[in-house]
Structure formats: C-alpha cells, structure tokens
Amino acid sequence: MIRRMSDFRVEPDQIDLPRGAFCKARRHYVRWRGRTVLGLSANPFRAYLFPVYTPAGLALTEEAPIDHPHHQSVWVGADHVDCLLPYGEGQIEVANYNFYVQETFQGRAAGRMIVRAIDWDELAERHLRVVQDIEWRGPAEWGAPEGRVVAYESRAIDVQPGDLAHVIDVRSRLRPGACDLQIGPTRHAYFGIRLVEPLRPDGDAELVDSEGRRGLAAIDGSGGDWIHIGGQLTRDHQAGLACFPYPHRGGATWGVHPWGTIDVNPLRHEPCVLTVGQHAEYGIRLVAHDGPLAATQVTEFHRDFCAAPVGDWNDLPEPL
Question: pTM for the full model?
Fold first, then answer.
C-alpha cells in the first residue's frame, strides 16, 4: 500500500511516445521538498539506483558505461549462482546462472531481476522507505518457458536527505525459489557502484578507507568499516561518496577498479549456501555529499550508522 506523503514524492518518469509504443525500462524519481534525490530504475535485467544525486544536484554514479554496460550505477548482483535441482534420491543437477552480466558469461546463462511489486512509506520528515519485491529468474529453457525462478529478493531502500549529504541504505534479503542455492565464491557480487568519470580512482579523485589505506593497490581486496572517494566534479564543485557495509557473518571485501567501480563483496572467498526456507541478508549505506569530506567526518557518519541503524531486518516483508 502506498501511503500519503508530504515532504517526499515518488514519481514515474514521464516520456511521451507514439500511440502503441511502450518503454522497455522504468524509472521512478524520489524527490524531497522538490529536489530529486535518486532514481529507482528497472530494465529487463536489473533493478538499480540511478541517478544518485548530492544535495546540490550533482550525479555521482554512471549508468551503463561503454566499457562495462552492465555496470548500472548502484546495483545488486551475483555471478556463479547455482540452482541445485534434485532428480533422484540424494542426487542433484546444477543449473548455472549469472545475475551480473546481461548475456551469457563464461558459460553461465544470464538471469533477470524482475520487480513484481513496489511500495513506499514516509516514516519521518526526512525518512522514506521503499520496498521492492524482486524475482531472480533464469532465461527461457526446456521445461521452464518463462524461466526458472531461482530466488526471491525483498529489497528495502531507505532515503534520508540532508543539506550536506543524502544518506541512502540498501538492504537485500534473498531466499531460494523451489530449489536450494549456492552463490559464489565469486569476485562479482553483491553490491556494485559505478562512479562518474571525475571520481575514477585512477585519476585525481582520492580513495581512502577506514584503516587509513589510500589508493587502489592498498585497498583492493581488503575490508574495513568504510570506504570513501571524493574529488572535483566540476570546475567549482567538489563532492564524493562514502559506503558502509552492514555487519554480517564473514564480513565484506572491497573490490576497487581503475575504471571507477567499487564492489562490496561478502562472497569473494566463501560461498553462500541456502536451503529452501533459509535466507541471506546483505546491506550497505551510502553517503552522497557535497564538498570535501575529511576522514574524521566520514568516521562521524559511520558512528551514527552504528549507533542508530535504519531498521531491524525483521521490518522487511517476505517476498511475494
């Protein structure tokens, strides 16, 4: 149920098309007091956040860049998703999918993430929660012409706008479809962030983490409480993005790449194995800010994150 709101608006993108034509992708804009904070986008393969703005209205992320068109701003995805299909007593076959690239990748069929339902509610003057029910569905195949439902996801996006920074939480609860799952280990999971060109860490942008490490070589493959990148977006405007992973078993590993991608990956070294009825939960917080932000200020944002989590995992509904 979508409730009445005062300060927030969630509005579909309006595109005039010829009669009989329709859009292959959808986008809703989240606006707070007339300012656009972010977009909720969905194409035939993925649901993701684009654009992601600072309070001054500068976009920090890129959608479908030419070198990696499957890097779509802020997204959820995973490669090496194995559906364990029983066919006899104690025997299984393994169906291999990727929910990362939008075509067959290293022999693994491309899956699709389909938004089946969306709801939003204004929880406070500066707090909107959007919940999406998403199917992870495989391609058409023999015996499953509509594609096999591999997993169900409930995704909560909490938006808390501000004057210095917008704070955005993305939480994902994933459970198997009709069969058990194994995801990973894989270098392509679970949260991805593709930054705009001025924030590429192989340029003039500054990349630092909570342990004081700086630059690609020192941070890639490591972990920590937070990661931050900032730089000169325009001639007269600095901005940046901080990311905090939600705590979970095993911790998360940073993957940072010179072309401007940050991965927050809890599945790099250990798989996630889910039997039917179980679920996994992963989350990140993003701080999209204007101006420079010192490490001490990022630490303050992280302290607030630890002291006042946005919600209990139990506030997420089970997917349809």
Answer: 0.94
